[in-house]
Specification:
This protein is α+β, with helices and mostly antiparallel strands and 430 residues long. It folds into 2 domains: 249 residues, BirA Bifunctional Protein, domain 2 (2-Layer Sandwich), CATH 3.30.930; 95 residues, Rossmann fold, CATH 3.40.50. Helices cover 40% and strands 21% of the residues. The chain has 17 helices and 16 strands. It has an 8-stranded mixed beta sheet with strand order 1-5-6-11-10-9-7-8, sandwiched between helices. The protein has a 5-stranded mixed beta sheet with strand order 13-12-14-15-16, sandwiched between helices. A 3-stranded antiparallel beta sheet has the order 2-4-3. Strand 12, helix 14 and strand 13 form a beta-alpha-beta unit. Helix 1 runs antiparallel to helix 6 and helix 6 runs parallel beside helix 11. Bound molecules: adenosine monophosphate. Adenosine monophosphate (AMP) binds next to strand 6, strand 10, strand 11 and helix 13.
Length: 430
């Protein structure tokens, strides 16, 4: 039988990489707490209609990228391709619009898009995201950007740039889309086949097409600039946001081509890019979605948020990671024989009570095997328990660095381990 493999575009996350995921998650949780954002966990699958209405029928995500299936009851369901539409669904469904119209939420978890997999582009990928719903003020857009920036800074990511655009509102966006259609219609022969298709369906998406012929069209001097079409209110909103970012010391550039893939964005759209990952250079993005709630059948509710791709952040952290410290804190418990296993498991409860991390190997092997294994795991302290030790009610503690071995009572062992191993560095039990 052939070896089973993970589905294309998915992967196992394990080994040394795990601590990077933990670091990101912990940073997200602590920054969320500092800014007063509450966690929300929505289902992994939702009704297909939610994304058709909330992300937009004309978008690439809905047209080509969704994992949609019928369940046994004949309902059309979709594995969530993004987090904002589910969050807004929850807000409306739980009646927040009435009893608590302003909420600040964050989420973290897997998303699914049927895309062409490559480094930093997966079919199952992970995002964390922050959403502030019910807030109209551009200061809230700035807070969302500040949160993203704080998390990236906290993680030590370098060479990041923030690009900003305004997509206008219901008043000015239609005028721009009309101007775009007119501009592209005259040049449709030069567009790639994808963009020819987008021309009527979703012309804004042509703006971030990477195909060279489309790029040439976009560079034309006659290309209509979104910024020129903004109404007075949208211009004011953008100006206030940019002033606040300047006051916060967050550098930005205006990119009039920045549109983002989802339909529901109004006004602010932004993306954070890295210079380190080649083509998949966006590590996060977001914007204002004042039309989303109505698209889902609710009353008008303003909102602003962002989502960041965790795979790409992990790739960046891996690049920066040095191989210096592979030492694991804690103690390796090496039983020699079945009786030793039982005694050490009893000892492990005492270690637990004292917050001392441990690893017990139940391989029923020789001492040589255990010492090799402890060395490979980078664990300095090994407790050896063989027949002789059990008879004398002692534990043999070996220091893998000096090679010294001492025989200790349980109390003596605990005292020594407490001195040597700090509970705070506990890598096993967090
Ligand atoms: P989006 O929801 O498309 O605005 O994406 C937000 C962020 O999620 C992007 O900036 C990427 O960092 C990340 N992302 C989006 N799609 C993928 C994917 N297929 N694989 C990995 N990361 C992704």
């Amino acid at each position: 039988m052939s070896q089973l493999k993970v589905p294309k575009g998915t992967r196992d996350i394990l080994g040394r990489e795990i601590h990077l995921w933990r670091r990101i998650e912990e940073t997200v949780y602590s920054v969320a707490q500092l800014f007063g954002y509450q966690e929300i966990r929505t289902p992994i699958f939702e009704s297909t209609e939610l994304f058709a209405r909330g992300v937009g029928e004309g978008t690439d995500i809905v047209q080509k990228e969704m994992y949609t299936f019928l369940d046994k009851g004949g309902r059309s369901l979709t594995l969530r391709p993004e987090g904002t539409a589910p969050v807004m669904r929850a807000y409306l469904e739980q009646g927040f619009a009435v009893h608590e119209p302003r909420v600040k939420w964050f989420y973290l978890g897997p998303m699914f898009r049927y895309e062409r997999p490559q480094a930093g582009r997966m079919r199952q990928f992970h995002q964390f995201g922050f959403e502030a719903i019910g807030f109209e003020s551009p200061a809230c857009d700035a807070e969302i950007i500040l949160i993203a920036w704080t998390i990236y800074e906290e993680l030590g990511l370098k060479r990041l740039s923030l690009e900003i655009n305004s997509l206008g509102c219901n008043h000015c966006k239609p005028g721009y889309i009309e101007a775009l259609k007119n501009f592209f219609r005259d040049r449709s022969e030069e567009l790639c086949s994808n963009c020819k298709d987008r021309l009527e369906r979703n012309p804004l998406r042509i703006l971030d097409c990477k195909v060279e012929t489309c790029q040439t069209v976009l560079r034309s001097t006659a290309f209509p600039n979104l910024q020129d079409f903004l109404c007075e209110d949208c211009k004011k909103h953008q100006a206030e946001l940019l002033q606040t970012l300047t006051a916060l010391g967050i550098p930005f550039v205006i990119n009039p081509h920045l549109v983002r893939g989802l339909d529901y964005y109004t006004r602010t759209a932004f993306e954070v890019k890295t210079g380190e990952l080649g083509a998949q250079d966006a590590v996060g993005g977001g914007g204002r979605y004042d039309n989303l709630s109505q698209a889902l059948g609710g009353q008008r509710v303003p909102g602003v948020g962002f989502a960041a791709g965790m795979e790409r952040i992990v790739l960046l952290l891996q690049k920066e990671e040095t191989e210096t410290s592979s030492e694991r804190s804690g103690v390796y418990l090496a039983p020699l024989g079945k009786e030793g296993e039982r005694y050490l498991l009893v000892l492990s409860r005492v270690l637990l009570q004292h917050g001392i991390p441990f690893y017990t190997d139940f391989a029923d092997k020789t001492l040589k095997y255990h010492l090799k294994r402890a060395q490979k795991m980078g664990i300095r302290w090994v407790v050896i328990l063989g027949e002789e030790e059990i008879q004398k009610s002692v534990f043999l503690l070996k220091d893998m660095i000096s090679g010294e071995q001492i025989s200790l009572s349980q109390e003596g062992l605990l005292k020594k381990l407490q001195e040597e191993i700090s509970g705070a560095e506990n890598t096993y039990l967090r």
